[in-house]
Design a protein that fits this description.
The longest helix is centred in the middle third of the chain and has 12 residues. The two termini are 13 Å apart. The protein has one domain. 30% of the residues lie in helices and 39% in strands. It has a 4-stranded mixed beta sheet. It has 83 residues and is α+β, with helices and mostly antiparallel strands.
């Protein structure tokens, strides 16, 4: 099993990752904004940093969804995931 560091010591198992998304690009869609708002309302959003987020990672663990905000861009996260 391998892990992905999302920033500020926040780590998730790669088996839990559903998707990695660019926040600037995806938040242009009203559907994504609604999804982010629903996750926030449900208490599923976790911040991996106090900096301005550039991406978000959707995770699923034991049937529970979480959305992790990261200050790292998607290219950096994907590169780390491949290593």
């Amino acid at each position: 099993m391998s892990y992905l560091h999302l920033g500020s010591g926040f780590v998730v198992s790669d088996s839990e990752i559903v998707g990695i998304f660019d926040l600037d690009i995806t938040s242009q869609s009203h559907l994504t904004r609604a999804f982010l708002a629903a996750c926030e309302k449900a208490g599923q959003v976790v911040s991996a940093s106090e900096d301005l987020p550039k991406s978000f990672v959707v995770c699923q663990r034991q049937g529970k969804r979480s959305l992790v905000l990261s200050q790292m861009n998607t290219a950096t996260l994907l590169k780390r995931a491949e290593e």
